């Protein structure tokens, strides 16, 4: 049995103090293996985004441990964590987070710029990523002039440009219409199948979750074990 | 992120909000402009003074006079009569009207000469010739510049006065040329002029002198310069017929010391003279007090410029804080993508420094342009009578220092917003709406 890429062991996270204390996550254990696609499903405020942030090393858990390829994330140095996030992880966000005034290419090569890669190689790799997502002709356009679907494809190109091992997608289709959303979904799953990139999708969209190899249901900060994969076909609320 | 990429991104970011950056740049521009102009005036005036008294020829000379009589205060009534004390004497032109100091007597000169470190002493004789005349061109009044032998003249033609020479030499100011019938400064050189002087008996006598040089007019006393032999000769003529035994008195004397004396030695000589009741000043002291006044004026102007720059510093803080606020998400994204806090800090402080550079470089550039233009106009109008005065002059080093200082102020102003940016938590930043 191989070591999981990411392994959360009973992790918890809370925000605020005293009466304002809010336990976003109350102890969740998840193993994510290389090459699989995992959906983290839950309603707003269920703690699914917090779980993703912890898995992506964007935040530190208050309790429990997070292992990155078997190493406790707490023991990693700041530079190592930055390197992991820069080179091994790719991020796709619902709100895109593109710099509106900058060109599409400039947006896509941002992780390479942060990594300290020279301008020539940046351009070559950025264009390659854009070609993969059929956006090469928009490279010089300003990001704000793209349509929603094009923006999300640009974001995926940005996530892809460093050849990451894991892509974290937070509601990747949340801001897109059904048809465009389907295209984006296809791209993400194709990357998972063809390139073996591990895919972690946070969503409340049951249909999108169903396309993943595995689903983790989060409810009120804990894993909802009552919902088996079969239940997705007939969601709990459907009968009542 | 590479250093060059940080600089490029910072420059690009500062142009992203052109109006905001522009207004901050204007604030810095005003400060840098003022600072450059005032420093230019400082350089211009100082260099003018230096050229006026250029290469102080007599660095080994002290001007000695009697110190103020400390005992004579108004409360005590008149001091008792002292037959040994010399009479009061007017300092001559340039001093406060009616003001007098105790004159130096022959005894005083001996005392000064006996002071250790003093090699020799000459009484400063002031001669008052009646007229100057060149080959039948008519007689004109002659003003003598008493300081001429102490300084090196700013020559238009010819040579400096030579005190060791046996010939009687005169140095004419450029303004005398037309009147005396010389068309160019060069044509006056080696010509003989006649100086008329009256002796004690009231008889006018004529003394010939050779023109050795023509000097540009200076602010430290206009008039013709005479070398020591000519001064002595004129003085002798003025005194001829004086009853024997009449005491001679002088307002000031020039004492010579070793040219290689150190500052400490000069100070010791001056202290020694002060103990004996003589006030003494080197030429550098006299010019120094003049420069001090100018430096104080420049200092006050600079203080205003610095206040303007401090105000501009708050402008930078404001601009960048708004920028950090506006780019919260972008910062969060960069941090999520593995950019460390130090680089984020560097990015924002570089932006501050760039804004500072932009404002100060533009300010300095425009100041140089405007200053040179105004200075040229003034030189031909208001300061026409002060040839060679370029009131605003720019030293590249001081402009570089001004730009450097402004960039430093900008950097310091940028630290606060840059820290705010560097400390942002990527998740909070990404959640920020």
Describe this structure as you would to a colleague.
The complex is a heterodimer of chains A (240) and B (433). Chain A has 240 residues and is of the alpha/beta class. In chain A, 35% of the residues lie in helices and 24% in strands. In chain A, strand 9 (214-219) and strand 10 (222-223) form a beta hairpin. Chain B has 433 residues and is of the alpha+beta class. Chain B has helices spanning 3-14, 18-52, 106-114, 177-180, 185-188, 228-239, 263-275, 283-326, 328-336, 341-380, 396-422, 426-431, and strands at 61-66, 88-90, 100-102, 118-123, 131-134, 139-140, 155-158, 169-173, 192-198, 204-215, 225-226, 253-257, 278-282. In chain B, strands 5, 6, 7, 8, 9, 10 and 11 form a 7-stranded mixed sheet that branches. The interface between A and B is medium-sized, with 26 and 20 residues.
Shape of chain A: globular
Which regions of chain A contain 5 or more consecutive residues with pLDDT less than 50?
Answer: 236-240
Q: Point out poorly predicted stretches of chain B.
A: none
Strands ordered across the widest β-sheet of chain A: 6-7-8-3-9-10
Question: From the helix content, strand content and strand pairing of chain B, which structural class follows?
Answer: alpha+beta
Q: Given the structure, what is the number of helices of chain A?
A: 9
Whole-angstrom Rg of chain A: 18 Å
Sketch the major β-sheet of chain A: 6 strands, mixed
Number of strands of chain B: 13
Mean pLDDT of chain A, rounded to whole units?
Answer: 86
**How helical, in percent, are the residues of chain B?**
40-55%
- Helix/strand-derived class of chain A? alpha/beta
Notable features of this structure?
heterodimer, A: 240 residues, alpha/beta, 6-stranded mixed beta sheet, 9 helices, globular, B: 433 residues
